[in-house]
């Protein structure tokens, strides 16, 4: 971080999407200079521009993957559950982002950008879907008992990560117990 950058921080108490009470630390960097960002897991950081007034689009981003944004980007938490039968619901929480500026995602593994035309679709495991814009999502059950796939319908853009954060957490738990 450059010498001229001023840092303000605030703690915010909230009920996390997973139903846990959490404290979140928000940091605001201002002034002339540079701030360097790095992911807390093995993976990439992607900077995505957003201009809702010009593009008439908003981005949706998985709650665990948003890293930072410029001051003009606004976010709203969307708590969503896909009903896939009588006894099962798939939780799929995300932020919808709008405004004008740049936001950064932290992803686990390599990230692919997929542009879908009108009428095109892609099936993605929910843990691999990092961000999307202007697409509709429908739950898909592919074998097994746990429905964890969505069909993403274009037109729009999706970012798909090669690995899931949940796999990293499971590996860390396993390593700490051995």
From TrEMBL:
Q: What subcellular locations does the record give? A: Mitochondrion
The record's section on InterPro entries has: AIM24, AIM24_sf, Trp_RNA-bd_attenuator-like_dom
Q: What keywords appear on the UniProt entry?
A: Mitochondrion
Q: Which GO terms describe its cellular component?
A: mitochondrion
Q: Does the keyword Ribosomal protein apply?
A: no
Q: Does the keyword Mitochondrion apply?
A: yes
Cross-referenced SUPFAM superfamilies: TRAP-like
Instruction: Tell me which Pfam families the record gives.
Output: AIM24
Describe the family membership recorded for this protein in Swiss-Prot or TrEMBL: Belongs to the AIM24 family.
Which PANTHER family does the UniProt record give?
ALTERED INHERITANCE OF MITOCHONDRIA PROTEIN 24, MITOCHONDRIAL, TRYPTOPHAN RNA-BINDING ATTENUATOR PROTEIN-LIKE PROTEIN
Kindly provide the name given to this protein in its UniProt entry: Altered inheritance of mitochondria protein 24, mitochondrial
Supply the source organism for this entry.
Bionectria ochroleuca
